[in-house]
Design brief:
23 helices; Sec63 N-terminal domain-like fold; 4-stranded antiparallel sheet; Arc Repressor Mutant, subunit A; Rossmann fold; 599 residues; flat
């Protein structure tokens, strides 16, 4: 379609700016190069150069090789994979009219305001990595692209050329010139909204409450106007009421089977998994599936090495539904395979897990992006930096939810592994790297600092003394100021004897010095399982907290360990072993006879 594009440029642009929208970043480069080649055949390679700017010199400052080649001919490329400085150069040149043709991806239609005399939509399909096939652009995207042509404040005339497959021509003719109906999208995420209404808001307590809640939504309005779109048999009130009741019952039954609500007849109440999902604004399937898999995760991390433990925690985190939509673009499975070899060449088990997922999986890509951040790995293309930011923005709240799920399941080692991963992500530093790398230092710089300042080889950030701090770079010193000063101090008081199955409290005092509020997780566990989990904030020098504990059902000498895990970095944690608690078997009531099987 490049020849028709070239012909449209000659016919309609005539020295005025033109935008050409293509389906992929690769196509921006190929289209731009073909247009230049076609212009060279006509011996007219300067007609798209709009001003006297020295485009050759400007092109030499660009990082992208295709852009360096195209700019001198008055043709630019623009997409999300370009370096930030390259994008600014292209945007500035096009706005000033120095270049007349800009080949770009559809994202530009929703972003920067670039008016043009001519807009060409070179094809209405794009490759969907999740589906593994080409799909149509939404009509709204096509309209947005067309809207860039002939903006009133910039031009009095606008021309839009849409190159489309012949069978779709009539479809686009219809919807580009007629009002497009706006339908409800509630059904696609109804389970999560209902889960929140049950577990967080408490407004839905029965099937009928759910029906009444649905009557206040846009979905109900559209059911009355266009019932067939939602597979409803009619638009009369009786049919719609039956449809809503069936829908409500099905959704609540699905949520009950997932364990996020408890459905008893027509009554519904919240469950812990649903409350966690709603509180952290997560897909209900994330907490449901995590609760199913957490026991296997616990068993895997118990005897794992530190590197393997971290990799397992990353995999558990990235299995969350929140990463389903992470884009895996055309041929990025090859990039993912190369990145895995670069980052994980010494971890055959993790590589095998990624192979089982497939390098075209968004969850595998999410794992690699986190490993790259923690291990200071180099990303292959600029797109990955954008994707990495997206993953790291999601990770803290997903991790917080998974910590709650693991704690609710009583999985002590799984909880601690996730807390360690939280520390690593917040400092962008793997637990296997030098502790000083948490201060935004490379491993080589951290080791050099240890040698020059005499800091012990295994010393933690909390062990830094004034003479060591003086040797830190300025940026590392600023990071250090935001962290606690030294390790936390921990003490606890508990009963020495308790009846089996009885409840009691452990009174905790946590001391930590530093600026601002500091968040810690209090983790109480025995040899087998987690007993209590609580997040506390230390605002001053100390913090008091109470942990509710239920004793085992059988008599024993119960030994508990209390840990305070700092949420922001490793090396500031504290742990204390509580005195042994004697759990006494329940005595029979006076006059009651003990039941003996077979008597």
């Amino acid at each position: 379609m490049n020849k028709p594009c070239y012909a449209a440029l000659r016919e309609h642009a005539s020295g005025r700016p033109a935008l050409i929208f293509v389906a992929s970043r690769r196509q921006t480069r190929l289209t731009a190069l073909d247009l230049i080649a076609l212009a060279a055949q006509d011996d007219d390679t300067s007609s798209w150069v709009g001003t006297d700017d020295d485009l050759d010199s400007i092109a030499k400052t660009c990082h992208d090789p295709a852009l360096r080649h195209c700019l001198p001919f008055g043709v630019g490329v623009h997409h999300g994979g370009l370096d930030e400085s390259d994008r600014k150069v292209v945007e500035n040149l096009f706005e000033r009219g120095a270049i007349q043709v800009l080949v770009c991806t559809s994202t530009l239609a929703w972003g920067v305001n670039f008016p043009a005399r001519l807009v060409i939509v070179k094809g209405t399909e794009f490759f969907d990595g999740k589906l593994g096939r080409y799909v149509d652009f939404p009509v709204t995207d096509v309209l947005q692209m067309m809207g860039r042509a002939g903006r009133p404040q910039f031009d009095s005339v606008g021309v839009a050329c849409i190159f489309v497959h012949q069978p779709k021509k009539e479809f686009y003719k219809k919807f580009l010139y007629e009002p497009f109906p706006v339908e409800s999208r509630l059904l696609s995420s109804l389970h999560n909204f209902v889960c929140a209404e049950v577990c967080l808001c408490g407004r839905v307590k029965s099937v009928q409450d759910c029906v009444e809640w649905l009557r206040w939504t846009y979905l109900y309005r559209r059911l009355r106007r266009n019932p067939s779109f939602y597979e409803c048999d009619g638009s009369d009130e009786k049919t719609i009421s039956a449809f809503l009741e069936t829908l409500s019952r099905k959704v609540l039954l699905d949520l009950d089977e997932a364990g996020v609500v408890e459905l008893d007849g027509d009554s519904v109440t919240s469950a812990t998994l649903g409350s966690v999902a709603a509180y952290y604004y997560l897909d209900y399937r994330t907490t449901s599936e995590a609760s199913i898999n957490v026991d296997d995760f616990e068993a895997a991390v118990v005897d794992a090495t530190q590197r393997r433990r971290e990799a397992l925690a990353v995999a558990f985190l990235c299995s969350a539904r929140e990463f389903d939509e992470l884009p895996v673009r055309h041929n990025e499975d090859l990039e993912n395979g190369q990145l895995a070899s670069q980052l994980l060449d010494d971890d055959a088990d993790t590589i095998q897990g990624l192979l089982e997922l497939g390098y075209d999986s968004p969850h595998a890509k999410a794992q690699l992006l986190i490993h790259a951040k923690l291990r200071d790995g180099k990303l292959p293309i600029a797109d990955y930096a954008t994707d990495q930011r997206s993953v790291l923005e999601q990770a803290p709240r997903v991790l917080a939810a998974l910590i709650d799920v693991a704690g609710d399941a009583g999985c002590a080692q799984a909880t601690l592994a996730l807390l360690e991963l939280s520390q690593a992500i917040r400092t962008s530093c793997s637990a296997t790297r030098d502790a000083l790398s948490q201060l935004s230092l490379s491993d080589a710089a951290a080791q050099k600092l240890r040698a020059s300042s005499g800091f012990p080889r295994k010393g933690e950030v909390s062990d830094l003394k004034p003479q060591h701090i003086k040797a830190l770079p300025a940026h590392a010193s600023r990071l250090l100021e935001a962290l606690p000063r030294g390790r936390a101090q921990l003490s606890a008081k508990a009963v020495t004897s308790v009846d089996a199955g009885a409840e009691f409290t452990v009174e905790v005092t946590l001391a930590s010095r530093g600026r601002g509020a500091r968040a810690f997780y209090l983790v109480l566990s025995d040899d087998d399982e987690l007993v209590a989990l609580k997040k506390v904030i230390v605002g001053g020098a100390t913090c008091e907290a109470s942990l509710a504990v239920e004793a085992p059902d059988e008599a024993c000498e119960w030994r508990l360990v209390l840990r305070a895990v700092f949420d922001g970095a490793r090396g500031f944690d504290a742990a204390v072993a509580l005195p042994a608690i004697t759990v006494v078997a329940k005595s029979l009531d006076a006059g009651a006879a003990e039941f003996v099987p077979g008597s």
